[in-house]
Amino acid sequence: MPVKKKSDEKRAYQIKVTLRDIRPPIWRRMLVPCDIRLDNLHRVLQVVMGWTDSHLHEFIIDGVSYGDPSLDVDMGDDVENEKRFNLHKVVPGEKSKFHYLYDFGDSWEHEILVEKILPIEKGTRYPVCLAGKRACPPEDCGGAPGYENLLEALKDPSHPEHEEMFEWLPGDFDSEKFDIKSINVELGGSPR
């Protein structure tokens, strides 16, 4: 029977995702299998961040764009098909950083840091969200500047857009809320 080398073991990437240009930060920490395909990582990011997958996206890794070229003819030959690439093949090590852009209009840029590479734990279902802070901004609010304006309008009853913003938002929106249990239920990962 061949001896299993450490490099043959299934590994998990502990990654931290931070939404750029938002203060205080909106972030998530999660574990994903190291061999997750980029298209599946996109779906995981949509769930953990709270997006609705209503817009185009791309990963930018070492200056190379990865996405779904079938969704946008403008992307064409300039983007690699994300379905053909596994995370550990394009982001091989700890402390590696790359970017995920969601919604080319609002330009939600996420910085992703590989914090650790760990052995897969028996009994743990992956992906799994470990921690996070604050709610995801609502879709189509105008990017980071629009979100800042939205939060200002919500805080100030005398703001000219105060009532309009309350009517536009879902009734349960709370910018500080982070519900790890519902995220992990949606991911199908191990509860934390």
From TrEMBL:
Q: Which residues form the Plasmid pRiA4b Orf3-like domain?
A: 12-181
Question: What organism is the protein native to?
Answer: Desulfomonile tiedjei
Tell me the InterPro entries matching this sequence.
Answer: MM3350-like_sf, Plasmid_pRiA4b_Orf3-like
User: Could you identify this protein by its name?
Assistant: Plasmid pRiA4b ORF-3 family protein
